[in-house]
Amino acid sequence: MSVTRILLVDDQPLMRMGFRMILDAQEGFEVVGEAGDGDEAVRLTARLDPDVVLMDVRMPGTDGVAATRRIVGSGSASRVLILTTFDLDEYAFAGLRAGASGFLLKDVPPDELTAAIRAVASGDAVVSPRITRKLLDSYASQLPEDGRARSALSREDERRLERLTGREREVLGEVAAGLSNAEIAARLVLSEATVKTHVTRILTKLGLRDRVQAVVFAYQIGLVQP
What letter does residue 221 receive in the DSSP assignment? Predict the structure, then answer.
């Protein structure tokens, strides 16, 4: 079994200890380091190259959003999973826009935590439909209002879209609506495995990291309207 290497980032030592106890008890997980602030998280990510960074979003000094932006901007293959105390946290949404692959509440049950880490490590994203909707409502204000700007953007990305089959475009639209693979499978009368294959091909063809970027891309080019 391959081992998922994890970096814990939280300014509270007791919180890091709690997550470490949960993860150390799981087969296939290895906590390779701990960081108490965003700057340390960036340094340790570069040095340790973890598969997943569990990132507290609210920390003094360099917060989780800034740290996530620096990690993603560096070209690191490490995936960031934001941890937050509050559901629908604006900091968490900022973290998603910065390139995180999803976010979880800190009081998430252990089985959901481990499932989320495995999903993110495999290249998926952990963002519920409700969170996706809120993220897009927030992101919509940044989309170009000028028709010419929107048309230019569409022309720029038209070649990328042409790489997708008709079914892949259909699946992309459902992903942008915030549906899970199981929900897409039910709606399009496909197997869940087939949907997962389509999503993987969509991300590869469009050069995107995960579902979060796919959602933003779909709205950015006007494939789906806010």
Answer: T
Question: CATH: 1.20.1420.20, 1.10.3370.10, 1.20.1250.20, 1.10.10.10. Which one for 140-220?
Answer: 1.10.10.10
For 63-102, give one letter per residue: b (16+ CB within 10 A) or e: bbbbbbbbbbeeebebbbbbbbeeeebebbbbbbbbbbbb
DSSP secondary structure code for residue 143 in this structure: S
pTM of the model: 0.70
The pLDDT score that the predictor gives to residue 170 is 93
Domain(s) labelled CATH 3.40.50.2300 in the chain stretch across 4-126
Least confident range of 194-198, 204-208, 214-218: 214-218
